[in-house]
Amino acid sequence: MNDRDASSANEAPAEESRVLDESAVREAKKASPSLVTLRAQEPGRERDTEVVLTLDDVTCYYGAFAAVSGVSFDIAKHDITALIGPSGCGKSTLLRTLNRMNDLIPTARVVGRVLYHGEDIYDPEVDPVEVRRRIGMVFQKPNPFPKSIYDNVAFGPRLNNPKAKDLDDIVEQSLRRAALWDEVKDKLGESGYALSGGQQQRLCIARAIATEPDVVLMDEPCSALDPIATLRIEELMFELKKDYTIIIVTHNMQQAARVSDRTAFFTVDVDDALGARTGRLVEFDDTGKIFTRPTHKATEDYITGRFG
Amino acid sequence: MSVLNTAPVGYRSLKDVDAQARKRRRADRRAKRIMMVAMATAVVPLILILWVVVQKGYQVINLTFFAEDVMPFRREGGGFRNGFFGTAYIMVIAIAMAVPLGIGAAVYLVEYGRGRFASMVRFFTDVMTGIPSIFVGLFVYAILVIGTVRIGFGTFVGAVAIALMMLPIVVRASEEMLKLVPDSLRNAAFGLGARRWQSVTRVVLPAAAPGLATSSMLAIARGIGETAPLILTALGSLTLITTFQGERQSALPLLIYDSATQPFPAGIARAWGGALCLLAITLIFTIGARIVGSRLAIREES
Lengths: 308, 302
Hints:
The complex is a heterodimer.
Chain A: H1 2-11, H2 22-31, H3 35-40, E1 51-62, E2 65-76, E3 80-84, H4 91-97, E4 108-116, E5 119-120, H5 128-134, E6 135-138, H6 149-160, H7 167-177, H8 181-184, H9 197-209, E7 215-219, H10 227-240, E8 245-249, H11 253-259, E9 262-271, E10 276-286, H12 287-292, H13 297-303
Parallel strand pairs in A: 2-10, 3-8, 3-9, 6-7, 7-8
Antiparallel strand pairs in A: 1-2, 1-4, 4-5, 9-10
Helix pairs in contact in A: 2-10, 6-7, 6-9, 7-9, 9-10
Chain B: H1 19-57, H2 63-67, H3 81-112, H4 115-129, H5 133-145, H6 155-180, H7 183-191, H8 196-224, H9 228-231, H10 252-260, H11 265-294
């Protein structure tokens, strides 16, 4: 399925969709500071200790079945937290519970607490719409609206204030932060569909940050993109974490290793009698530790490719 | 045929086909021929209708046909002006009622509708699509014309009957169009903190707009030719009527019906002319619906 996504992304009409070869990759790397360089600056960085999100024994149900069960960990400000694990381990479900997107699925139910700066986002007095405004989301497949690039980015701000005056400013700032401004500044009136897959995804990121969220959730944001577009998004995430807290679900372990500060590894328990698959958190730690000296055998097996 | 584990047979000519395969090929050709005959038989009456209507109708169509009111059936000349006007008048009112209501109901079914109530609405719209049109006429007649409300015959009650005929078509066709809007767009809107209503008005409806126009046009094409509901509501008139309600109103199908049921060649010839015009109008709306529908802006690569 991912292969098909990637190929359809390649067909998108734009300069990014040239044939992938090594020189193109080198060029893309030259264009901006490489991740390796960025990573090298990392150890000196003062890690924020402020906790933005706390998961406290969170279990997500679809109907009677738990998709992921008993998850507890903290997410620190300005960190990139990666959720990894095999298919069906509930990492996407868990991500969607963090901004109450799962409320939209009729049978979905959450037990346990998700604290946002200490406030339970599932408190009956909390409006899910408000949660989604603070905690934005970028989806697996680029999903721009069938509107102009400008209108796509202005969508969020206009929801709150239809007559916002500084819209031009917000749009420009958001596109700049999403590293898309230079590519689209002359064609803001064109449809978002006219962009390549990678540009569309950056447009979706610009759209998400235009609402000035605090946290950005990314659900496999690169799975439909080619390696060059993926690299761009990863660099972008590195830039964005100065201002935002990012949580990313990824199937790509190199990606988790490259971009994230902390990693949560999930696994799936299959109950053959009921046919139920329930995910659970195995290990949550610094990414460096997860990928070099994991505490659990299951983690090591998965990251070294001995699993599945 | 053969057991697995046998060694490969080796080369055999491609033209060396066994009896079973030849039998299958014959069955295949036979099936294709039968389907072609079925298709041709189905198309013949359609083409005949078109041909007869054009052949018999084109002679009476000239400027006076649109400019003059209907003549007594035995006399030549005159036109269907009152019918064209009446149909346009009735349709405008009927569209104003059926399209917003129908699209509203479809939005409810797709965006809000869950559980029992929605499936009940869906079931009854399905039933309504199949209701004989004379029942609708009878219903409006019983309630509005002589019944509890008692406002008599007229343009408005005719429009109510036509709107009732159009409504289920608008609802079901619009529902299908709204379902075509990918959920990924709704999720994107919700992810940005949109309320349901905001996602409907800013994302779903604009994305589905061409489709909604198509569904409305299909319903118009259907409603414009309805005769039975009008017999008991608009009743028909021989002159141009501009009154909203209270006076008998004319309509194209009614004039065709009245002219064709009289034994006078002049009236029957005009009926064919009216039929040709009605056919042309219906065709325009149907083709228009196709063209607009093909411009559907919704796109999802999956």
